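On to our target:
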Amino acid sequence: MGSLLLSLDTDIKTHYQPRSLYAAFDRYPLPKGASTHIKHMASSLFSAYSPGLLYVLADETLPVYQRETEPADIEIVRCLAQESNLLSRALDYSKQLSGLLAQSGGELKLAHFRDPWSGIPLCQFKQSKKDLKLVYEVNALPSIELPIHIPLPEHTLKKIALWEQECLEQADLIITPSQITQRILQQKVPNKAIHYLPNGADVYHGVSHQAKRPYLIYFGAAQRWQGIYDLLQAYKLVRESLDVGLTLCLSVHNRQARQVEKWVEQFELKEDVVFHFGLNQAELRPLIAGASASLAPLTACRRNMEQGCCPLKVLESMACGTPVIASDLPVIRELMAHNEQGLLTAPGRPGELARVCIEILTQQDMSYKIAQSALEHVKQHFNWATINQTLKAHYQQLLNESVIER
């Protein structure tokens, strides 16, 4: 097999001919939920059908090329999208994928993609390669997601929505981790089956972090829709009543994370808040397991309400045996029930969040009961092994259809 090389100007020179492709407009790996999801989905694809190619984004810390042989034979290509504007980077990523497909897609039979930036080049490539099967994994719709990050004119959003629609119509299989998204997509393509395939978590059997005093934990990204500002307001109220710390494990030390640091200073909480950045799973999970409660105070914004999501922080906390306090949103109720597998509070209500935090911190019997119920719930309904097997069954059905069609 020839090796795949990318020169500094991102020209692709390869003799490699993958049979499967997983494409995602995400930097990978990073210590965040998207990377965990990509890891499991891509591993399922490549173990079912290899050799495989993983096409993702690069940054200054990640190589543009990697070769892996375990657990499956794969190569990783990372796109060096140089544009500073998010949408421009997406288009650059898409253009480079088109070039990669033209040169290396001759043996491609199965392609799984997470976004229209990956999907449009694959839909175009499929026009000349009719036996290619496409899997569209809809985690977020850019037509809803992008305006949160950058201002876009209406005609641009309409064009992006058309790209999303084309990907939905051309895909041979559509999966999504949210039942809310499932219903939205069903309206867009009423004659297609939309398959619900949630995120998962592996039960943690390790040792919990031992702290000098009890602490609450938040882990994940630091965008405004995560509700960290509300969390800090609530924690300040909790701290007035109880001697409890707060641990913030943020994915990266970026602009949003620096804003969180400013909020901590603004609320005069610097002595009580511990920051961690970029922890891997081995470093993060003991901290989750040692916490008195894990917080997921999502805001009731369009991003969380209209397109849905499946927050891994909730599932991973439950899998660590840590009680979860989360916003009472439909996306959370898909994962747990109030007073059974966790506690729900009205979004954007720091006072209520503080009250529930105090409740979980002072009622040990209730805390233990909720944590154990959550642990069993994850084992039964959200374990990665079952989810991965379901995905592999979908892949096998598509491949069987290809054989019949030939």
Q: What stands out?
A: Residues 206 and 352 are 32 Å apart (CA to CA). The longest strand covers residues 20-27. DSSP finds 15 helices and 16 strands in the chain. The chain has a mean pLDDT of 92.
